[in-house]
Amino acid sequence: MNSIRVKLFNSKNKIIGYESFSPLNRFMAKYNYGTTDKSSESGKEKKPNGLQIECEIKSPLKEFINTDTASRVFVLKYAWKYIKDNNLQNPDMKRKIIPDNKLKQVLEKDEVDMLEIPKLLFKHVVSHRKE
C-alpha cells in the first residue's frame, strides 16, 4: 500500500496529475488522511492511553522483567519476546504456551493459551490514573 501511495499522492495527499479529480481530494481532506501529525501541529504532547500509562509492577512479574514500573504494552512485548527467544510455544499447536520455571511463577499455569497471556500478566500490574 505504501508503494502505491508514494506513486499516486504528493506530500499534501493530492493525486498527482489529476487536479480535476477533486472528489477524492476533498474526501481525504474532510477525514484528515494527511501525513502530518496533529500533535506536532498544535505543540501539545499527546497523553498516553490506557495501555501506555506507566504502572506499578507487583512481585512475581517484577522479578521477571526486573523493573518497578512499566507500561502494559512493554510488559506484554517483553513476555512475548521471552516466549519467542526461549521457544516456549508448543511446536504442534503454536497457540499454546508451555512456560518454563521463570515464566510459570508469573502465569501460575502449566499450559496457557496465547489469548490468556495478557489477562494473566496484567493481574500483576497496578495502574494509578493521574487526572
UniProtKB/TrEMBL annotation:
UniProt xrefs under InterPro entries: SWIB_domain, SWIB_MDM2_dom_sf, SWIB_MDM2_domain
UniProt xrefs under Pfam families: SWIB
Ranges for domain DM2: 50-127
Family matches, as PANTHER family: SWI/SNF-RELATED MATRIX-ASSOCIATED ACTIN-DEPENDENT REGULATOR OF CHROMATIN SUBFAMILY D
Name of the molecule in the record: SWIB/MDM2 domain-containing protein, putative
